[in-house]
Design brief:
Blueprint lengths: L20 E5 L11 H10 L4 E4 L2 E3 L9 H17 L5 E9 L5 H10 L4 E5 L22 H21 L4 E2 L6 H4 L13 H14 L2 E5 L14 H9 L5 E4 L12 H11 L3 E6 L2 E6 L2
Parallel strand pairs: 1-2, 2-4, 3-4, 4-5, 5-6, 6-7, 7-8
Antiparallel strand pairs: 9-10
Length: 290
């Protein structure tokens, strides 16, 4: 169940110390990372981060095929161990990234209740598409027709909307992530205006349910050099009154923690945001966007 991952070990472009919380990181308890938890913490300290969240993958589509609970328990144990080691240097948050919770809703609820998390990310990595249910990172989109890609994207947004409505989580992660592969990997342009109604509905849902919008920086300085979601969607969220914002590198190697968060903050200030948030005990905690 190794997923393809186009993240690379990038040279850090954030030379100044970033007094920020990176709310999305992976360790070797995720299927697509070999990152030592302590190395992740050391890199975060070296970059001047205020805190990081361990948010290892828990992909619910595999609940009947493998043990998805034990890695999450081990990740939580390591996050608490690292919190003791780095006390006074770095705030470490215990978290999880749940994917495809709507596929196995009851089991996902059990996972949510299993550990006293600080932060739960909600993600869609695979969609219930007639074209296949594999993670979009594994799909070869080069053979898809325009209509098939359009159908896939509409299903992606439908699944995300259902996840927001039904599932218990704090932060909506990497909205528009399929474009990382459809456009970034396969070079297929997407007219996002076609999905404006669905995107606005998703933004309306998270605002109503007080779910934060993640600004994911993992694509920056890559072939697909775009935030997830893209700036236009972030501007729409702000215009609609959304204010709960987290920033996350989605690091799968230690050196990428904090990746381009400072640049993302400059963009957020231009849009009009004045605060960022991290989560502790599942509650949003504001801190200034400096």
């Amino acid at each position: 169940m190794k997923f393809s991952n186009i993240e690379i070990n990038r040279e850090c472009r954030n030379c100044k110390k970033e007094k920020l919380f990176d709310c999305h990181n992976h360790t070797w308890y995720s299927h697509d990372s070999q990152c030592d938890p302590e190395m992740l913490c050391r890199c975060a300290v070296s970059k001047g981060l205020l805190g990081i969240a361990f948010t290892d993958h828990c992909d619910m589509e595999y609940v009947n095929q493998t043990d998805i609970a034990t890695p999450i328990c081990n990740s939580a144990e390591d996050s608490r161990r690292c919190e003791r080691i780095y006390a006074g240097q770095l705030k470490i948050l215990t978290g999880i990234e749940i994917g495809e919770a709507i596929w196995h809703f009851r089991e996902a609820e059990e996972i949510v209740q299993m550990i006293p998390y600080d932060i739960i990310l909600g993600s869609v990595h695979a969609v219930r598409s007639r074209l296949g249910r594999a993670p979009y990172s594994q799909i070869d989109f080069s053979g898809f027709t325009d209509d098939e890609i359009d159908s896939y994207m509409r299903t992606y947004f439908d699944d995300m909307s259902e996840m927001i409505e039904r599932c218990d989580f704090n932060v909506l992660s990497h909205l528009t992530c399929p474009l990382r592969y459809i456009t970034g990997k396969y070079g297929i342009p997407i007219n996002m205006e076609k999905y404006e109604v669905q995107i606005i509905q998703i933004l309306r849902q998270i605002i109503k349910k007080k779910i934060a919008l993640e600004i994911n920086t993992s694509n920056k300085n890559s072939v697909y050099d775009v935030y997830m979601p893209m700036r236009k969607i972030i501007e729409q969220y702000h215009m609609m009154g959304g204010y709960l914002i987290t920033v996350g590198s989605d690091a799968h190697v230690a050196e990428n923690t904090g990746h381009m968060l400072g640049q993302a903050c400059e963009m957020l200030k231009e849009i009009g945001f004045t605060e960022l948030y991290y989560y502790q005990n599942r509650k949003p905690v504001p801190y200034p966007l400096l």
